[in-house]
Design goal:
With 214 residues, the chain is of the alpha/beta class. The protein has helices spanning 18-29, 43-55, 80-83, 90-99, 107-113, 128-134, 151-165, 186-198; strands spanning 33-37, 61-66, 121-125, 142-145, 172-175, 201-205, 209-213. Helix content is 38%, strand content 16%. The longest helix has 15 residues, at 151-165. Bound molecules: S-adenosylmethionine. S-adenosylmethionine is lined by residues 12-14, 36-38, 40, 43-44, 65-67, 72-73, 76, 82, 105, 127-129, 146-148, 153.
Length: 214
Amino acid sequence: MNTDYKTFWRKSGLKKNWGNIFLKIINQHKPKVFLEIGVFCGVTARNVCELLNKIHSGNFKYIGIDLFGNKASSDEKVPNYLKKQNFSNPFKTLIYNLILRENLNSYESVQNFLKKFSRNVTLIKGNSNHILVNLEVKDIDFVFLDGGHSFDTVFNDLNLLYDKISLNKGAIILCDDYEDADYIKGVKKAVDKFVEEKKLKLELVEKRFAKIII
Ligand SMILES: C[S@@+](CC[C@H](N)C(=O)[O-])C[C@H]1O[C@@H](n2cnc3c(N)ncnc32)[C@H](O)[C@@H]1O
């Protein structure tokens, strides 16, 4: 199966080879019901949909949660790229900011970008710590946790997810930014505490992704 990550001329949290490494993990597990927390501009979502569509011949679900411009929690450091839509490529600035005036991290933009998979995709706008309380997640077999990166947000997300998917033996929660970015400390602390308390198995992938096996 082709696991080449494409950026579709948008912005993505998975740069260079990270996208390919990520898709290889997805291809290994072949989930049918995928949840991404932190959709950003939808690039990873689109890559996941393209891959799962091929693997399961169209029979898969993708659920994505993002603030999509809503206010982040008070303990969360909002990265600059979310405050203002900057591009290093001047053509992108021209097209997205001046001609189309499109905010790539808006609900509408991501929904439009994923419209090829509209039958499979559910996008939810809001804070994951609130949304997960009522979300029906029992069939989810793979979570990519890449939303808020503070200790509290990650720890709450993990516990809310666990309460719902702990019966899905073999389900995976893959956390981004566990170790590669030394300016982000909250993810590692939250994952380590959660795994220890719940006595779960943790595997590190390329010192960046923390794979928690339920
Ligand atoms: C690092 S980006 C995600 C990158 C994306 N997964 C990708 O691969 O391109 C983080 C995203 O999480 C969202 N976010 C931050 N805190 C959140 C929260 N508490 N609930 C939901 N989304 C959140 C931000 O709006 C942002 O779009």
